Amino acid sequence: MLELATVGLALAWGYARLPAPLVERWFSAGVYPAVQRAVTPISNLVPFAVLDLLVLAAVAAMLTVIVRGVRAARRTHRIAPLLQAARQLVVALACGYLVFLALWGFNYRRVAMTDRLLVEREAPSSEAVVRLGLEAAARMNALHAEAHRAGWQGDEWRDEELRRAFAGVQRLLSDAPLAEPGRLKRTLFGSYFRWASVDGMVNPFGLEVLANPDLLPFERPFVAAHEWSHLAGYADEAEANFVGWLTCIRAHVPAQYSGWLYLFWQVNNEVDGEGRARLAQAMEPGPRADIDAIVARLRRGELPWLRNAGWNVYDTYLRANRVEQGVRSYGAVVTLILRARFEDGWTPVRRGAALGGSASP
Ligand SMILES: [Zn+2]
């Protein structure tokens, strides 16, 4: 009976249409920040990925159930033990899904950034996209020498200026309690990240950040800020890119460089051949060498078939979590940046803030 209720509850929550403002108020700005501020500092204490332990334990438990079921079926010559094992696995899956939703997953259903901020209705022109790329190239050119002179220390979660910038951006976007930044951890699945060209991810069951071990120093601040945005409950990839970029360009020069480099990379993927040629022309040799180093890193590590398979799985996962654009939502950050209204210093304007009213949705 309890088993049936668990599975029923998982299905009900999975398919429920919840109003975004309700999810925002009760979960994303209510329960979730309290959970995140308790769990992430604990997982920050250990250098290894909690996810590794959880996966090993889950696989061991699953194998035990299956082996036990098969043995009993052979001994008794009956199918009942197999059905019993299948039932246990389904219930375990339902439990896992409920924990996922409670710890993180409901964030997929919160108020969208386009409803949170003042944004233009029309899609940007392709010329506007190229101009954003040209701005990114100009910033990289200007920042390159100083960024490389100052260097990248790693240990982003202890970087006071990056943390301060992250807090500032969160305050611009929401009245929710501030999220605790996570340590960039290595994982047993580091090779998978390398082969599939994944830069990083958040483990929703430990609210911790896992990073690709091959990231170049100047890539790390942006990847850290992107993953922290997920920890702040911005589950959508475009939104995490937006928050991550805003964070980087508000911090010290090496982080600013990382943020603009990310945006250049993203714009470069969105424009046509002619646009790409204009972007390439605008870039000086220093930043060009950094971009080439990233291309070389990806080429060295990736297994194209695994990369494609991995991104297909993630695409399915995103769509199952109501992200209709799937993995294409990464690139939607360019549209978001071009549509959002900014005040001086790339300060986005919240809806309602312009009217002097409460900015919470
Ligand atoms: Zn992400």
Describe the model.
With 361 residues, the protein is mainly α. The protein has 2 domains: 2-109, no CATH class; 113-355, no CATH class. It is 66% helix and 4% strand. It has 15 helices and 5 strands. The chain has helices spanning 2-15, 20-45, 50-76, 80-103, 113-116, 126-150, 160-173, 190-196, 220-231, 237-250, 253-270, 273-282, 285-301, 304-320, 332-339, and strands at residues 184-185, 200-203, 208-211, 342-343, 347-348. The protein has a 3-stranded mixed β-sheet with strand order 1-3-2. Strand 4 and strand 5 form a beta hairpin. Helix 3 packs antiparallel against helix 4 (80-103). It is globular. It starts with a helix and ends in a 13-residue tail after the last strand. Mean pLDDT is 91; it is low at 355-361. The structure holds zinc ion. Zinc ion binds at residues 226, 230, 237, 240.
